[in-house]
Specification:
The complex is a heterodimer of chains A (451) and B (623). In chain A, 47% of the residues lie in helices and 18% in strands. Chain A is an alpha/beta fold and 451 residues long. In chain A, helix 3 runs antiparallel to helix 4, helix 5 packs antiparallel against helix 14 and helix 5 crosses helix 15. By secondary structure, chain B is of the alpha+beta class. Among the domains of chain B are: 143 residues, Elongation Factor Tu (Ef-tu), domain 3; 94 residues, tRNA uridine 5-carboxymethylaminomethyl modification enzyme MnmG/GidA (Arc Repressor Mutant, subunit A, Orthogonal Bundle); 57 residues, DNA polymerase, domain 1. In chain B, 52% of the residues are buried. Classes of the chains: A alpha/beta (451), B alpha+beta (623). Chains A and B meet through helix 3, helix 4, helix 5, helix 14 and helix 15 of A and helix 7, helix 17 and helix 20 of B.
Chain lengths: 451, 623
């Protein structure tokens, strides 16, 4: 009984179409559950079917789905391939849906491995398969380090710690029932903690940097004094990428003035009302307003004029943005240098001339580097693992729903604990914690027991 | 010439020799002191959380511990009775005189089994195969298989304060050379440590200052094949007390006198995390004001009271002060002082799942020599070693219990796959599928095996089959009978109270409602089944969702466990295998993909590489 695996089969963010491959006994069933169109469980083998992928009732994408039944497939298992419309956000969302609905993310080289084990690939190729697994694993291992940002990882560790404390308490009540001086973990006590943990998971899901970038794009604000060339830079960026969508209300609550995609990742230029009409942001709404914009943004592009010296306001803004993801753009390098660059304390300074279209690529490269977009673009793993993390978080949240259901049905605490442990394990998977003695260690460090 | 020699007459040795002899093999049990057969050198109790379930598993396989405990109990309780069925387990106070006496009686009346008093100091090994044992006086006794169940006797040292004395529990003779010989044969010998508290003269305790802990007011037996041998009202109580501030002060002031805290500088043994000494507890949990202690009766035939929770390696004068600081024990007379004991054990990763050693063929080990702690843990290994040594001599496949079949399976798999650092105690949290490994269904899980091996009689098996039939019959009856939303029915349902019906519903589904019991079902249909039969259906209906999920998870594991790795696999030939994984795999030599996955340090990619390699080299079937 092999489980059903899924992964993105094309390199990401480049092509117009991405293919997500699903293989295993439940491949057709799982995809069918997300698919609006023909009943895929009834279509003939090796057919391509038009329809939509749904997240509950919401359409995620218009897709073509190839259904191939075993054994005449790459893995000799049932295989479904979903052709989605490129774009990291969509591809990621579809993968995440598959992972939350019963698929497991394929390990490196796993499709090939299955093809081999099921006799689809010749024995002579075995060494090749092993090299492939190894090569992919090495890359995945390197990239896995960046998989979850430090702050999210810490949050998850905290949640796991709260969970393991509850678990250890329940376990100790079970394994050492005679200890009257140990607090008995009751359903009532779990209820409160559960609520807190679920709320935190929700927050992580909302805030998760990777998830947010993939889902919503990068909230970007361009600030600077009048006539430094903010609109020209914006227009240059837009020229570079024709895929601009104007005045779209994004999935975030922000009003999106414009969208720029850099290699498949969306930059949402937020709340810059009039930025392309008037050039007077700082003057009209003042430093105060721009400071509040800074707090909301994922990325701040602060534009300065190479031909003018720094003002007090500039310095104030520079100080403020230092703590944020920010890039200082020195525009107008075609003019004489009057600005004191040494006085600008920022890790990311880009020199450009919007007029001569110089340095725009440097700006893009800096943005890409800042958000690890390089890796998202070239290596599916970082990006995959973010879909994986989101799916795991959602599953953990679902496990906690089950805990609640058990609680409401008056199940004994050791039954409820099964789902609680599930949630703990799922959270552990996200950060790669799988130390099997962890719970038992906790038990004996948290409680005083012995003969 | 014997077929099987068992070395050691503790709980492991008793089960091993009984299993072997009952299976018709000429068996010799060698013990240092026949009076110490089935001795309980530490706490006077059998069972407990997880352990109580193991005792029932031993019974279902045809072992003796359950029956013997039933014959000698002073008090019995179902632990966790307010919790779910998965974590309930029996715990009994057993009489330290009756228990060994009954066991010896059983051993002596078992055909094919001889008992002999002697010390074994070496093995006869020819070309890596066991051929018997050598006694301390040089005599050689030959056999086809040997089972070592030496407990804490290998190079045993008793530690009290700053003294170290080479002796076993109760001052028994230790085995001084056997562990050195084992080392020479290629075993990795490790040093472990455990301890036991004081015994107090019953008449010197003022029980009025303690809290009484009674046994249950319902009858229980460990064995599925026994009727209760005790009277509810004649159970002997235990007593609960707490340490005082003075106790804490005495211990902390004299910490450096404890063997473990500087009294002795040469301690190598690793003590169990779950059984810290009282000084450990005081140090590690500094903020805790008081610690709970149980006063447990050891026997009806003598006056020792066991002070559970007070194990220590303090010198005797400090122990006097400590004991006298306890409520009710101000004038207590200490009959035996607490001590710690250090002993040799072998690296359990040098064992196969059958408990046969990888180092010497037909040599098996069981119990504390494998690094476990506890009578029940020892007994179940002894039973499995006895069964598997016999099966080997019969030319049959060993009996390997899976992690979803028995706590015994969990224990042995943990030992051989993960190895141990401190003495291993079973805990329910070690079992992934504890909902499947219940006290109530141990017979349903294992009686078939016991019967097939030949340790369960035809008679008993017929009774078991009858129970299974009844469960099936009741389930069908409930599934075939519906109740419909008539006015009368709904009126009755409101009195329970439970939600009235809108559509017809089978009685089986009706019983799934949390508030519904068989009393309510009997309103609609007359049922005549025993409580054990009703209990099974009740558990299956109430916890169906959880059980289905656990079974599904377990199936995945079984599937991986069924993917065998050939014995002769050469891990050096698998390119790209991570070096940590390679080293562990070579050391543990897992027999299945499932076992390999459970080795820490072996990653999914390593597993993939192994599977591809196996397919290439052995035309491995993956499905």
């Amino acid at each position: 009984m092999e489980d059903t695996i899924a992964a993105i089969a094309t390199s990401l963010g480049v092509g117009a179409i991405s293919i997500i491959r699903v293989s295993g006994n439940d491949a057709i069933k799982i995809v069918n559950n997300l698919f609006k169109g023909k009943d895929l469980t009834k279509v003939s083998s090796h057919t391509i079917n038009y329809g939509h992928i749904l997240d509950q009732d919401k359409i995620v994408d218009e897709v073509l789905v190839s259904v191939m039944r075993a054994p005449k497939t790459f893995t000799r298992e049932d295989v479904v391939e979903i052709n989605v419309h490129g774009g990291i956000a969509t591809t990621n969302k579809v993968l995440e849906l598959l992972l939350t609905n019963g698929c497991r993310l394929a390990e490196p080289g796993e499709f090939t491995k299955r093809a081999f084990l099921n006799g689809r690939i010749d024995l002579v190729e075995a060494e090749g398969v092993m090299d492939l697994i190894n090569a992919k694993t090495d890359k995945a291992r390197d990239l896995a380090i960046n998989q979850v940002s430090g702050s999210v990882s810490n949050l998850i560790k905290e949640l796991r710690q709260s969970l393991v404390e509850i678990l250890a308490n329940i376990e100790v009540n079970i394994d050492y029932p005679e200890y009257e001086d140990i607090e008995v973990m009751t359903i009532e006590m779990i209820k409160d903690k559960l609520k807190m943990i679920k709320q935190k998971i929700k927050e992580i899901l909302d805030k998760s940097q990777n998830g947010k970038i993939v889902k919503d794009g990068i909230k970007t604000v361009i600030i600077g004094r009048p006539n430094v060339g903010k609109s020209s830079i914006l227009n240059r960026l837009l020229e570079e990428d024709k895929a601009i969508v104007t005045d779209v209300a994004g999935t975030t609550r922000d009003i999106v003035e414009g969208r720029i995609t850099i290699d498949g990742i969306v930059l949402n230029i937020i709340d810059t009302a009039g930025i392309r009409k008037t050039d007077d942001l700082v003057e009209s709404i003042g430093v105060k307003k721009s400071l509040s914009l800074i707090d909301e943004a994922d990325l701040i592009l602060f534009v300065l004029n190479n031909n003018e010296s720094l003002t007090k306001e500039d310095e104030e803004i520079l100080k403020k943005i230092k703590k944020h993801n920010s890039i200082v753009i020195i525009n107008k390098i075609d003019l004489a240098n009057k600005i004191n660059i040494d006085a600008i304390d920022n890790d990311n300074i880009v020199m450009l001339s919007a007029l001569n279209n110089e340095g725009i690529n440097d700006l893009k490269a800096t943005i890409k580097k800042m958000f690890n977009l390089e890796q998202i673009e070239q290596e599916d793993y970082t990006y995959l693992s973010s879909a994986r993390s989101i799916a795991l978080l959602k599953q953990a949240s679902k496990a906690l729903d089950n805990v609640e259901e058990g609680v409401n049905n008056n199940m004994p605490i050791d039954m409820v604990e099964i789902d609680l442990k599930d949630a703990w394990n799922l959270l552990g998977e996200i950060i790669g914690a799988n130390y099997s003695e962890e719970l038992i260690d906790q038990l004996f460090s948290q409680f005083c027991l012995g003969k | 010439m014997y077929e099987i020699i068992v070395v050691g007459g503790g709980h492991a040795g008793c089960e091993a020799s009984l299993a072997s002899a009952r299976k018709g093999h000429k068996t010799l049990l060698i013990t240092g002191n026949i009076k110490n057969i089935a001795d309980m050198p530490c706490n006077p109790s059998i069972g407990g959380s997880a352990k109580g379930i193991v005792v029932r598993e031993i019974d279902a396989l045809g072992g003796e511990m359950g029956k013997n405990a039933d014959k000698s109990l002073l008090q019995i309780k179902m632990l966790n009775s307010a919790k779910g069925p998965a974590v309930q387990a029996l715990r009994a106070q057993a009489d330290k005189i009756t228990y060994p006496k009954e066991m010896l009686k059983t051993l002596k009346s078992t055909p094919n089994l001889e008992i002999r008093e002697a010390m074994v100091e070496d093995l006869i090994v020819t070309d890596g195969v066991i051929g018997g044992v050598c006694l301390a006086d040089g005599e050689k006794i030959t056999s086809k298989a040997v089972i070592l169940t030496t407990g804490t006797y290998l190079k045993a040292d008793i530690l009290v304060g700053d003294t170290r004395t080479r002796q076993g529990p109760h001052g028994e003779k230790p085995s001084n050379f056997l562990s050195d010989k084992l080392k020479e044969y290629g075993f990795n010998v490790i040093r472990l440590k455990t301890g036991t508290p004081q015994r107090i003269d019953r008449s010197s305790i003022d029980f009025s200052k303690t809290k009484v802990e009674e046994g249950d007011q319902t009858y229980h037996t460990f064995s599925f094949d026994m009727v209760p041998q005790y009277e509810i009202d004649k159970q002997v109580p235990c007593h609960l007390i707490y340490t005082t501030e003075e106790t804490k002060k005495i211990i902390l002031d004299n910490l450096n006198k404890s063997s473990m805290y500087g009294g002795l500088s040469d301690i190598k043994g690793v003590g169990p995390r779950y059984c810290p000494s009282i000084e450990d507890k005081m140090v590690r949990f500094k903020d805790k004001e008081k610690h709970q202690l149980f006063l447990e009766p050891e026997s009806l035939y003598y006056d020792d009271i066991y002070v559970q929770g007070f194990s220590t390696s303090m010198p005797k004068d400090i122990q006097d002060k400590m004991v006298h600081s306890l409520p009710g024990l101000e004038h207590a007379k200490i009959l035996k002082y607490a001590y710690a004991i250090e002993y040799d054990a072998i690296d359990s990763r040098q064992l196969k799942q059958s408990l046969e050693t990888k180092v010497i063929e037909n040599l098996y080990t069981a119990g504390q020599i494998n690094g476990t702690s506890g009578y029940e843990e020892a007994a179940c290994q002894g039973l499995m070693a006895g069964i598997n040594a016999s099966l080997k001599l019969e030319g049959k496949e060993p009996l390997i219990l899976k992690r979803n079949e028995a706590y015994i399976g969990v224990l042995i798999d943990d030992l051989v796959t993960k190895g141990i650092i401190d003495p291993y105690r079973l805990l329910t949290s070690r079992a992934e599928y504890r909902l499947l490994l219940r006290s109530d269904n141990a017979d349903m899980r294992l009686t078939d095996y016991g019967y097939k091996i030949g340790l369960i009689s035809e008679d008993r098996y017929a009774r078991f089959k009858e129970k299974m039939e009844q469960i099936k019959e009741l389930e069908e009856t409930l599934k075939n009978n519906k109740i419909t939303p008539t006015e009368e029915t709904n009126k009755y349902l409101e009195t329970i109270p439970t939600t009235p019906l809108k559509d017809g519903i089978t009685l089986y589904d009706f019983l799934k409602r949390p508030e519904i019991t068989f009393e309510h079902v009997k309103h609609f249909i007359s049922l005549n089944y025993s409580d054990v039969v009703l209990e099974q259906i009740l558990i299956n209906t109430k916890y169906e969702g959880y059980i289905v999920k656990a079974n599904k998870e377990a199936l995945k594991m079984v599937d991986l466990d069924n993917k065998k790795i050939p014995d002769d696999i050469d891990y050096d030939k698998i390119h790209n295998l991570a070096s940590e994984a390679k080293q562990k795999l070579k050391q543990i030599r897992p027999t299945s993909i499932g076992q390999a996955i459970r080795i820490s340090g072996v990653n999914p990619a390593d597993i993939s590489l192994i599977m591809v390699y196996l397919k290439k080299e052995y035309f491995y079937e993956s499905k």
